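Postdoc handover notes: sequence design on the structure in folder B. Input tokens:
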């Protein structure tokens, strides 16, 4: 059974990005397991010296790497802060540049706001440089409210649910293919 890891780039309680990823889990096919990564806020600042001395990696980094390694595919939804990728997400990705947990792995990226024009392409560029398999059919821009939505509302919306099913189908097809 394929396993999907969802990653929200927002640490905000009640994040619309996290709600969208939870909605994806609700509409996922029964033969797909979905787990949400909740570790970004506990991952310390990337330090190449600590990475090179891998015997003493911080436990949050070890958990992050293990969750990525266990996933067959990854789906990321993130806000844009100051025209860029949120620091916690970029930091988490920096920890796996050299270790390769994303190399060849199918990854989808969902942007919740058409007004966010910078973080979306930046994230795709970072993932591409890391040799992740960024799946075009799983990389979409939606225009949804930034606050006040919950997973149930999103999963019940035919347009949102349909888009999420298409994203998941594209990831699964890439993984299976």
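Designed sequence:
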């Amino acid at each position: 059974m394929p396993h999907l890891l969802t990653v929200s780039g927002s640490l905000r309680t009640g994040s619309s990005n996290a709600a969208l990823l939870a909605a994806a889990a609700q509409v996922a096919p029964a033969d797909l397991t979905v787990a949400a990564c909740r570790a970004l806020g506990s991952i310390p600042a990337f330090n190449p010296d600590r990475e090179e001395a891998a015997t003493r990696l911080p436990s949050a980094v070890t958990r992050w790497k293990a969750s990525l390694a266990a996933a067959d595919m990854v789906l990321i939804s993130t806000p844009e802060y100051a025209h860029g990728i949120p620091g916690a997400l970029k930091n988490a990705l920096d920890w796996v540049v050299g270790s390769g947990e994303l190399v060849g792995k199918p990854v989808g990226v969902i942007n919740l706001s058409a007004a966010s024009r910078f973080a979306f392409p930046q994230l795709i560029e970072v993932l591409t440089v890391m040799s992740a398999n960024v799946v075009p059919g799983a990389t979409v821009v939606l225009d949804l409210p930034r606050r006040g939505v919950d997973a149930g509302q999103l999963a019940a919306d035919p347009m949102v649910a349909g888009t999420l099913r298409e994203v998941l189908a594209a990831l699964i097809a890439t993984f299976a293919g």
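Context for whoever picks this up: The helical segments are 16-27, 48-52, 59-70, 87-94, 119-129, 151-156, 158-176. Don't rerun without checking with the PI first.
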